[in-house]
Specification:
This protein is α+β, with helices and mostly antiparallel strands and 136 residues long. 37% of the residues lie in helices and 24% in strands. The protein contains four helices and five strands; from the N terminus they run αβαβαβββα. A five-stranded mixed beta sheet has the order 1-2-5-4-3. Strand 4 and strand 5 form a beta hairpin. The longest helix has 17 residues, at 119-135. The protein is globular.
């Protein structure tokens, strides 16, 4: 199995040093995530997308930051086009790495993170997500 590469120092700059307040699971997050996924599907209809899925603590129905994370795995051939399209829709990009891009939004009192992934990062995230769903 391919291991994760060593993380360059710049990788850690995307994380905050501030403490995170842990919130109990909010069942409303499921409906908001479902509606948001539908919205993303309509935005990305012009691109081949391999998967759009609810991930993170709200998908696992456990306590966490309380934000909703949506994973998006576009066809590799359209990676940059999807980034440009979503950047225009979200009026900017929260973070960009070689196999990872993050966009931020807010809906119905929920912070939303749209996380675009490709390559090994996407494969690893999807496997981890599937494992956690089956074992939570």
């Amino acid at each position: 199995m391919q291991q994760l590469p060593p993380f360059p120092d710049r990788y850690w700059l995307k994380f905050s040093n501030e403490p995170v307040e842990i919130a109990p699971f909010n069942p409303r997050s499921e409906k908001v995530a479902e509606e948001y996924i539908y919205r993303l599907q309509t935005i990305l209809v012009k691109f081949p997308v391999n998967d759009i899925y609810h991930r993170g603590s709200t998908a696992l129905k456990i306590a966490g930051k309380g934000d909703i994370e949506i994973g998006v795995i576009p066809d590799e051939n359209y990676w940059f086009e999807v980034i440009v399209d979503l950047s225009q829709h979200f009026h900017g990009l929260g973070n960009l790495d070689e196999e990872y891009a993050r966009f931020n939004d807010r809906v119905d009192d929920f912070d939303i993170e749209v996380i675009l992934m490709r390559g090994h990062t996407a494969k690893l995230d999807k496997k981890l997500h599937t494992f956690l769903l089956a074992n939570t």
